[in-house]
Amino acid sequence: MMNVELIAKEEIPSFKFLEAPAEERHVVKEKLNGAVRLGNEFKSKSFITFQTDQGPKKIETTVWSVTEKYLQIKSGVSIPLSSLIDIQY
Fold first, then answer.
1. pTM for this structure?
2. pLDDT at 1
3. Which of 6, 15, 21, 60 could bridge 52 with an S-S bond, Cβ 3.0-4.6 Å?
């Protein structure tokens, strides 16, 4: 079990995203679409875990959209899909 630090979403710009190890990735398209639907239709938040240069980090936030390469949250912040480890809601 990896040790994941919960951070405020406002701290994201202070980290450099890295590609998550393939064996740790647990994000599938259905989870991404579910998080977007929860955020847009129900204003519910999701826990997003992603890989950074300082180890895995987790935030709790509303997912606004998903593009081909990024997950987008509030304030124009985008997280590369390749760095995602998990999404829980």
1. 0.93
2. 52
3. 15
Which string of DSSP letters, residue by residue, matches 23-46?
GG----HHHHHHHHHHHHHH---E
Q: Kindly report the CATH number that applies to the domain delimited by 5-88.
A: 2.30.30
CA distance 5 to 59: 9
Domain boundaries, the chain: 5-88
Residues forming a β-bridge with 7: none
Backbone angles phi, psi at 36, to 5 degrees: -65, -45
What are the backbone angles phi and psi of residue 50, rounded to the nearest 5°? -145, 160
Strands of the sheet with 46-52, listed across from one edge: 5-6, 55-61, 46-52, 84-88
Element (DSSP H or E) covering residue 2: none
Position 75 scores a pLDDT of 85
